[in-house]
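G., before I forget:
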Amino acid sequence: MPEGHSVRRLARQFGDVFTGRQLSVSSPQGRFSAGAALLDGHTLLAAEAHGKHLFLHFDNALVLHVHLGLYGAWSFGGDSTFAGSSSIGAPRRVGEEETFAEADEDGYDDGGNAYAGPPPPVGAVRVRLASSNGWADLRGATTCETVTLAETDGILARLGPDPLVNRRGDAGRFAANLQSRKTPVAALLMDQKIIAGVGNVYRAEVLFRRRLDPWLPGGDLTDGEARKLWRDVVSVMNDGVADGRIITTTPRYWSGNGKRTTPAAALSAMKSGTFPARDNAHFVYKRDGLPCRVCGTTVLIAELVGRKLYWCPYCQQS
DNA sequence: GTCTCATGGACAT
DNA sequence: TGTCCCTGAGACG
């Protein structure tokens, strides 16, 4: 699924195109008809994200709560206010950029200017939001429900601190969450009660970046290590929000073969404004069997609580 | 066409 | 720890 950075981008996009607008809310697929009816005709007040959860607040004190899960995705289309909007969510290839709307297929008439209304829904559209300026379709989400404000608070209360919110005291809360557990730190990073928004890509990558042994019990991290880990998650996830991609390698690794280059070459890569090729965007994620970019040791893979974990056994020793 | 896999999580056991 | 649900794309035949 899109990790927390994608959901944050989604919230921003909903805010940009739909805030203050009256929305028609429907469930072309039919599975969300009752929930959609509660929101239909109401105005969107705000869109917010916490971790991987998206909350759309309507003017009747009800909230559309969406969790994309592994397969969920939103697609958008509409007039010029939608020009920068993109489809966000799975399924896409890992590391692939978001796909941007093409005007011809998104409700423009043949003249290319006036918005002619949403196209007929294609496939299993769980919910469609439509305003006078455009539309958004949701497919395949794990959770799509209409909830009250109290229920929203309940959902938020079950989530740990979000690195993309990064309130004062969150680093300490995260450190305390880690240090009270004997579970491997790699499992704790995926636990949304410990930290909200980290998924399988970020967890593997930040553990490598901090050179932490994924199997180290959370309680074995020092407070300083835990806080540095938090700060690195904050940093890479904010980059993800800006880039619309998960890029965890530094420019020194962006050249052709993904091996470390000279500082001059890295500077040149940064100045040229290029992004790494998909193959060079990560240190260890999905690189099992390949040599570590830093030390050359073969990157390993293992199953941990049902998800695949990638790490370098040399760089990440405890 | 069929199979497998994927950035997740709830629930049962 | 295992099972199930959700959807679509790519590999394979």
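Residues 91-96, 102-106 of chain A have pLDDT under 50 and may be disordered. The radius of gyration of chain A is 21 Å.

More on Monday.
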